[in-house]
Design goal:
homodimer, 352 residues, alpha/beta, 3 domains, six-stranded parallel sheet, 14 helices, DNA-binding
Chain lengths: 352, 352
DNA sequence: TATGGCTTGTGTTACGTTTCACCAACGAAG
DNA sequence: CTTCGTTGGTGAAACGTAACACAAGCCATA
């Protein structure tokens, strides 16, 4: 309703002084003055107008987070930790849900930029960042979450990611170590950097063990449009059914993430397969439900709290000292294999 | 970078005209002029500074959504649909996660208000809205999601909710119809309107059938602090174990929501109970995973897409024509019982 | 008694937009 | 030839804040 001037008038001081009080320059006035101003602020329930402040300062204390899909609790967890990290440093967080659609992401990025946000975190790990060139050219800093960024350093200023390939390798090696030879993957379209990384990791681990991962053992969502985030569990269910209906069904499955894995549970049971007796399943992410599922899901854990902390720190550093431009600022963190009850030694005997 | 004046200069017109072009007042100029302005805008990649616009206009085109917890996919679904509905009407949506903490919610509400947002949707269904009096007095419109609002009409301007009591009744009646007599509830602290409603519904249905729901059959999270949203699944697991360890264990469980129900699956299995053979479980919400779970979860569905649509429509109406103040604008929608595999006729015989 | 330095402020300008009153030019009508 | 209305604009003020240069009062020192 009423601005800084009204407060100033009632406290008998100038607007500048009120501004100083608000912004913590307490050494510039007598305690008595400060007390009086604070009193009026309290009494009027005055809050600074953020739009005016932002207009004046040219930027605000907010970060943006663009996530692929709220349908996957993993991203809920990420949002939670990113927000906490941002808030600790005095930044607000705006969360958007873009379903990995470049147009929607561009729209949000534009909206954020013109609302004064200068840094966003992007979770969609697209194959190309070209569509963001416009906004980055106009000053928006983009941090990549969930993707190793080697090229496109002109667009992306920093990044944190679990080592996707290593994650894929860990999953596959675990199954191989249990004697599995026919290993398949269940995924939505493998058209993001992170998914490609995971797939390649599985492939590499298998190759090292003298095994193959033929394309038709990598189920990619059939004719789903988009990336299959919204319907992940459903796709996992359909995918594993198709794979298990083959003449040479796999004995081990690496799901592209835990939602697909949980869906795969349902699909395997639809066909009467027992987990882990008949089919072993490994997930990726380690969402809360992985531990609750029956059997508890063996999966690759991403250390989300630490990753969130890092990426927020790096992005804020980029924003606040946007001059050094030196350190590449790309961190790869190590995923961890969490062995639970959904994987078991293969029972080749019964097939022989 | 450069503002409306730079565009005006390059197009050889005044800033006012550029403003008119941007805001669609095309009848105020020649097509030729408009074309020239548009050309310069395109060429400069000019975007209006939202802060300045907002400062001038006093409010912006955004709605806020304060959700209890991103840890529960139900709220992810709500966020998704609310956002879609808002976007359709030209509004942006800011999503915040407040863990039902009145202080955090107040903080966010204040932040939103002072950033120009005039309408928020609140999902936490607290017992009292008093803590919001300040912000509503300063003009913030608050819509309640997930709660029937009878009092506090001075604070809350509109609301949409599933009929919580009816939902509870449907769940209990289903179990009663299957012959269950010892029915218990698993929940976090029953200290929100929605949870109280669900509990009362269960109680009423049981009373009508001549059954009792003693307090010690309503497990409320033990010594958990807060509302147990973050750890819902874990609490469900612990709670059902305590209930099933009693001398007179229940044969039917109504969980306060699907996350608790999924946790209850795990807890029942921990003790060797078979679902639904030994224990029947009913959830609430119908999240995606309810269908995927093994067995698929019998639950009470909330029609989220329709509810999101309604509440956004009502809130925007309140904002845009904030004068009529007439219609109460409280809608109760009907929940639906979805029978799946987690409930079964009681096997009293074996106990006898 | 000057001089300087500290303390405790104040006045003004600028941020980029929208809006509203105003205006020039021109054709039509009286 | 005047008056009027319409078309196609323009200029300036205002929104609420932060920053910067400046200043009044006062004390210590030379």
């Amino acid at each position: 309703m009423s601005g800084i001037h009204e407060v100033a008038r009632r406290a008998g001081v100038s607007a500048s002084t009120v501004s100083n009080v608000i912004n913590g320059r307490h050494d510039k006035m007598r305690p008595e003055t400060k007390r009086r101003v604070l009193e009026v602020i309290e009494q009027l329930k005055y809050t600074p107008n953020i739009a005016a402040r932002q207009l004046k300062l040219g930027q605000n204390q907010s970060l943006g987070l663009i996530i692929p899909s709220v349908a996957n609790p993993f991203w809920g967890l990420v949002a939670h930790h990113v927000e906490r990290a941002a808030r600790q440093r005095g930044y607000n967080l705006l969360i958007c849900n873009a379903e990995r659609d470049p147009n929607v992401e561009t729209h949000y990025a534009e909206a954020m930029l013109s609302s004064g946000i200068t840094g966003i975190i992007l979770g969609s790990s697209p194959l190309s960042f070209d569509y963001l060139r416009d906004v980055t050219a106009r000053g928006l800093k983009v941090a990549a979450f969930d993707q190793r960024v080697d090229q496109a350093k002109d667009v992306i200023t920093c990044g944190v990611s679990v080592d996707q390939e290593l994650g894929g390798m860990l999953a596959a090696q675990h199954l191989i170590g249990l004697g599995h030879k026919r290993i398949a993957m269940v995924s939505g379209p493998i058209k993001t950097k992170s998914r490609i990384g995971r797939r390649n990791g599985v492939k590499m681990a298998m190759a090292r063990a003298g095994l193959q991962l033929p394309d038709d053992m990598v189920w990619q969502g059939g004719d789903v449009v988009g990336f299959g985030d919204l319907e992940g569990a459903e796709l996992g269910r359909i995918g594993i059914r198709e794979l298990l209906s083959r003449d040479d069904p796999p004995t081990g499955i690496v799901a592209i993430n835990d939602m697909y894995a949980l869906g795969a549970y349902a699909g395997a049971r639809d066909l009467g397969f027992h987990i882990p007796g008949d089919i072993s399943i490994v997930g990726f992410d380690d969402i809360i439900l992985a531990e609750i599922a029956q059997p508890a899901l063996t999966t690759i854990r991403q250390p989300v709290p630490a990753m969130a902390e890092m990426i927020v720190r790096m992005l804020i550093a980029e924003i606040e000292e946007s001059g050094n431009a030196e350190d590449p600022s790309f961190i790869n963190v190590t995923p961890q294999l969490i062995v639970r009850g959904s994987t078991n030694a293969v029972r080749e005997l019964q097939n022989a």
